[in-house]
Amino acid sequence: MLFRRSLILLFIGLILGIAVNYLTGPSIETFGTDFLPPAPETTSLRISGMYSDETDYSLIDTEMERFMSNWELSGASLALARDGKLVYAKGYGYADSQAEEEVEPYHLFRVASISKLITATGIMKLAEEGLLSLDDRVFGPDGILRQEPYTNYRDKRVEDIEVRHLLNHSGGWTNRWGDPMFMPTVVAKKLGKDLPVSDEDIISFMLDKRLHFKPGGMSSYSNLGYVILGKVIEQVSNQSYEDYIKGSVLFPLGIYDMQLGNSHLDQLNPLEVRYYEPFDSNLTSDYSIAEQMVPRVYGGNDIRTLGAAGGWIASSTDLMKFMLAIDGNPVPADIISPESVKLMTTPIEPGYHPYGWRGVQAGERYRTGTLAGTSTLMVNRDDGISYVVLFNSSTWKGPKLANDIRRMMHKGIAKTNEWAEFDLVSE
Length: 427
What we know:
globular, 3-stranded antiparallel sheet, 12 helices, 12 strands, 427 residues
């Protein structure tokens, strides 16, 4: 009888222990070089929209709902912070319109080019650790990527490309003949390979062409440059790109659900939303099987290969935690140094992109992201207000929709006079 009672007590203790770990997750202090986090589905802080119900942000809600209706957007997730505190998190519309599943703040969205800000942060971490310098050459005999398949290049100027050139889009490539990250059939034909092509294949394809300008001579937006930065991270860290970012950037912040996404519907994460294009969108060739026609949102783009340039999936609340950790403010503590923050938020000169961010202007920094079925925006303002907006729909306006999103959010924020004092992350 005593033995039986002991077993029951032991079982109850185990259940309570699991419950506590689910609610709190591991502390930052437990992380070491050999740390393996628990399974993401048991550790992430999953904030529900119900936590924001007691606060009146109806004016922001009104603007968001009107915006979604005007642009026929299926679902959205919003995270809003003030003075380093997450004060509002809410989902709008549907994560899956067919199943009538409503969006919650914990749902994962493709974040497209917001991925570049994540990659740039990883590079700055490696620089702070002394594992690379922003002045390091990327290619050539003395370059970081001096091994196969990066040793064959047509233009000698490739050897002058430095890490910082890739960060601010001045590596020497333009999209004059199209973006190679979205030209799998062309790359495969040129290299004499079958689909799907890898990121290494695409890099090799571009190294076989002449640069469009001298490295550092101007700035031209380049997805390719950030894919190459992903390879730099792998070479220097001796880890996969995803593993390094998770272990050195995300896990220390208590972020466990963010990960590289996949392309096809049957590959989506269980917490991931469904994606929607404009109703008049045409089918396109599958990135892996040219003869197979698919919706662009499910196979038209190779999300995994976009990787460091556009492959991450994340919730709005986790992205907010990440942004607040690179904003230069003391609360919460940053994951990178003040010097790194300054480098990332100060363009070298007019006309050059900042490191990772899409734009830096008086009063704010912003990062946009656009793919078929995806429209995203994150903004960090000098007045202490930051926000992340994720949509699981795209429009005919493409990347230009971000300007409308920003105007909509600023209008709603300007009308809000009272702000919550609590922090949803710590509640």
